[in-house]
Structures are given as C-alpha cells and as structure tokens.
Design brief:
CATH class of the domain at 161-259: Alpha Beta
Structural class: alpha/beta
CATH topology of the domain at 161-259: Nucleotidyltransferase, domain 5
Shape: flat
Strand order of the largest sheet: 5-4-3-6-7
Order of helices and strands: EEHHHHEEEHEE
Strand content: 15-25%
CATH architecture of the domain at 161-259: 2-Layer Sandwich
Length: 264
C-alpha cells in the first residue's frame, strides 16, 4: 500500500548522545531454591536431646545444633469407656447413678470427633465411605459402610438448623446472584445407575455467602418456591427460566455482563 503523498527521505548524521545511568535495586532471590520450609509455631514440639557418645563429664557446653523435622502421627481410634458407679439409697428408696454426657446421636457408639471426621473426609476431602471403611479396617476396626452412612445421615440431620439459617440470611439480601449447575446423583431406585440432578447456587456477593439448593430438574419450580418472598435484584444468565422473575412486582431481573450477546 502507498500513501497519497510523496515521502522525502532525509538522512541526518548526528553524534550519539551518551548519558550515565545509575540506580540501586534489591538483589533477587534464587527462584530455583526457596529455602527450608518454615514450620508454623502452633505445632507441638517434642525435643530430643542427643548427647555425644564420648564422655562429656569434664567438658563445657558452648552451644547447640538444632535440627527440626516435621513428623506425622496417624489418627488414633480409642474407646472412651464411661464407668458409672451405682449407689443404693437407704431403706430401698432407689438407686443413684451419674448421668451420661450429651451425645450427638442417641444410642450411637460413634463419638463427636469420629462423626466430625467422617463428615470432613466425605465432603471436604471427597473420600467415599468404602475408602473410609478400608482405612478403619487397617486399624483393626471393621465398620460397615452402611453404618458409616447412617452415622453421616444422623449428623446431617443435626445441621438442619444451620442450613435453614444460612438460607434465611442469603435470601434475605436485597441483591443475589443465581445459577444452576448439573451434578451426577446415584439413583436409589436403580442400583448402579445415576441421574442428572442440579445444584441451584444462590450467592449474596455483598455478604460473601453462598447457599446450595438441590433439585432433580432444571425447571422454574425450585427457585420459584425459594424466592417466593424475595424482594430486590436478582442477577442471572440468559436461561429462559429466569424471565418469569423479571415480571414480578417486588423483583428486578439484572443481566450478567459475562453472558452478554450481540443482538442483530
């Protein structure tokens, strides 16, 4: 391509300009060597003193060489045995015995620590029940998977008040974001089969809170039921199920810039 006017090239010889530049900077660390891993202060410390094999009776100690080693102690199962002496009152007026402490699940042999660990392994570390059962069996304790599942269900029932309070706080905000995401769910009606379920995610960005509501389908029924009393701004993508919320009197539908499309 040519320009619509002539370019006149001129060569001008000039002497190079030399300037002196000085500055200081901090020396960069070697990226390939980050040094020894720092150990946190909250860990318990077991001190092991190693004396020389030689006789040090007449020698003067002039210092110490300290070497830290990070060690791991596997989790330990133990039996908490509550022994309650029984005392008979005078004149056959009855028996006196101490009360057992409150237990998370009535008549359950699993303590609070074990129940909490099962929940963390399942929902934080994504460890299935059969692997948890294998780990306990290596410790010489055989716990059927069905029993672990029953314990998990009982613990989850204890968390319902927290779940409902989280729902109340998130849906009580004046501005929430909503989206649905698919998830494979084991079907109890068909052994070994899965069906497609959905997690409807309600996010309160101002308070940084998230609430999950599971539904078997992707219809409007789930969010319609939860947002029955919602008043404020609802931000979603362009899924047509959300259009109904935009015509509600107390609700205003807000579009998402990440899902904007050019309309011709």
């Amino acid at each position: 391509m040519s320009l619509p006017f002539e370019m006149v090239q001129q060569s001008v010889e000039t002497e190079p300009v030399i300037e002196k530049v000085e500055y200081t900077r901090r020396k960069a660390n070697n990226e390939n060597h980050n040094g020894r891993l720092p150990l946190p202060d909250h860990l318990p410390v077991e001190e092991i003193i190693i004396e020389p094999e030689e006789d040090t009776t007449q020698l003067k100690c002039i210092g110490k060489e300290i070497t830290d080693e990070l060690e791991y102690i596997p989790s330990v199962l133990k039996i908490k045995r509550y022994i309650r002496p029984k005392y008979a009152k005078a004149n056959d007026e009855g028996i006196v015995i101490g009360n057992l402490p409150t237990r998370p699940i009535d008549k359950c042999i699993a303590g609070a620590g074990l129940l909490a660990q099962i929940h963390v392994d399942k929902f934080v570390d994504h460890l299935p029940f059969y692997r948890q059962a294998q780990r306990y069996e290596r410790e010489g304790v055989k716990i059927p998977r069905s029993t672990i599942d029953n314990w998990q269900t009982g613990t989850a029932n204890l968390l319902w008040p927290l779940y409902n309070e989280l729902k109340r706080q998130v849906l009580g905000q004046g501005y929430i974001q909503l989206d649905e995401t698919p998830i494979r769910v084991l079907d109890q009606r068909k052994k070994g089969k899965c069906h497609r379920g959905y997690h409807w995610v309600y996010h309160a960005p101002i308070e940084h809170m998230v609430f999950f509501d599971y539904q078997e389908g992707r219809s409007r029924d789930g969010p319609k039921r939860l947002l029955m009393d919602f008043k404020g701004y609802l931000q979603t993508d362009g899924y047509n199920v959300y259009e109904w919320f935009g015509i509600q009197k107390e609700m205003r539908l807000v579009n998402c810039m990440a899902h904007a499309r050019l309309m011709v």
